Amino acid sequence: xxxAVRTIWPLLTSLxxxxxxxxxxxxxxxxxxxxETIEQFRPKPLDANLSRRIQNxxxxxxxxxxxxxSDGKRLxxxxxxxxxxxxxxxDGPQHFPVQMTGGEDATQLVGITADDRFLIISRDRKGExxxxxxxxxxxxxPLMEIxxxxxxxxxxxxxxxxxxxxxxxxxxxxxxxxxxxxxxxASGEKEQILNEPGLWLIADHQSDGRMLLEKSLSxxxxxxxxxxxxxxxxxxxxxxxxxxxxxxxxGGKAGELIVLTSKFGDFRRLYRWKAGQFTPLSPEIKWDISxxxxxxxxxxxxxxxxxxxxxxxxxxxxxxFTPLKLPVFKxxxxxxxxSHSVDGRYSVLTVEKATMPKVSYVYEWxxxxxxxxxxxxxxxxxxxxxxxxSLESYPAxxxxxxPMFVRRPAQCKPGPCPVVVYFHGGPEGQTTxxxxxxxxxxxxxxxxxxxxxxxxxxxxxxxWLAMDDGPKRLNVITDIEDAARYIRANWGKDGKAPKIGxxxxxxxxxxTLIGMTLFAGAYDAGVSSxxxxxxxxxxxxxxxxxxxxxxxxxxxxxxxxxxxxxxSPINHVxxxxxxxMIVQGVSDPRVPVGEAVQMYEAAKKRNVPAELxxxxxxxxxxxxRENRVAVMGHTLRFMETYLKPAN
Length: 647
What we know:
Helices cover about 20% and strands about 30% of the residues.
């Protein structure tokens, strides 16, 4: 039976009359929590043996796909082998990597100028998600700041084909909108191109100054416009008032766009758009096209199909749309296309599977030559023995099959294997097959690692994706409890049911808190990372540039207050009875640190075993190696303590 609103009205009336911590905290970031609190809940030291296990896993490292120079002789890429993401260079296939950037701040390669003179670098501090934008000479050297302002996002959009300008977007005029700027590399001067209210990004551009602009209305809904440089006006193209999902790029012919949309069916499909008409390019199948790209020369169009969590790659001629030959990779989970050389001669391809980290190749289209450029590192670990991700399912209470990837240890002794159920973020995310040191860490410790894609997840069509929008979440939130019900009834051994833990980050952290409170008794322990505890206080305090996107997903506090109150874990904390650990980055601009503190305080009042970890130098997720070791280690320790029988 569905979890209908009418069945919970008496409880709603009580909660609205006296909502727990309704006013809650105010603000986000380090200024919203006392320094003494941050210090009190910093991570405790780990047992040396446990720390060593985590360190061994984190030593397994695979570089990012990277970007080629126009002559195909150098590959630049981001890599976190030093403990935090930095930029590296290869001067030939499998040459010794040269480190280009350093320091403690997460740094990403976001572009290369068309003349190959400069790298375009994005750098964030403490996970605040307020990155700055920089230039670096292609041979190395100090970074040259384009813009990096406290509390402001500065994000690369594109570099002009003549190598003179960098275009970027920034919310330095309004915190809830992005203006578009042009920066001159020679003079250092910047010019504002667009300052209309809205969450704008440049999807593509033409050499005559026209730009294809995307305006986001939610994490899914978009509108498209063309910026006309002569009149400085925006020409509406499609999406206006449609509440549909679009992603578009300029095509290989004048007046033509390549568009990915689910407007005309349940699944995302690739179309050619011209003069207002959409013509299908990809076949009609019951899988989503997840991504597409064109090289700057508009010669090659590549797209990937998400086949239930496995990624398949297709290539077309960008002018005629006839199929192009690609290398054949056997027995892999994912094949994707990364960046392309400026002239369209080369493309970066990546492959991955559960027993092999991501590997990057450079593919030459004309000759069909495939060259491996990078080598993943797996010191002291034989990844061929990693558990494969088996695609399974469990029935929701209304009979709907919920897909779930499961990784199992070779054997469990004594009794049934304990289980950890991992819920992904988003909520529009998706757990897929592929390589995962995190999952393997639990498998090696004797746990079954199960990762459901509940209703509201991406990859299964727009109907599935929209099933949890706003108050509709009340009807499908029970997918979280049903996973535990199924596992407890079917994964036992010798008549004994397994112990089950729940964990996840972001929306997965919220799902964990719901599983531990609203569905108390379903899970025996939980670890929530950067999870929402109260949807009302979350929407009041999250960063303004995200608020409208999250209201579109979770509901409006003015019109959907009843549902938001019922769907807030903190309003069910009186049911909490199993051990709970909460992890939170203090600088998180998405889920404020107050969400973690108020949930921990409420849990402690229940006298249940509760732990709180606050990371002073992290945001929405964990970037630095020492913090990753601490979080992974304490999560594993917590689950082993409460899910495994005492020796």
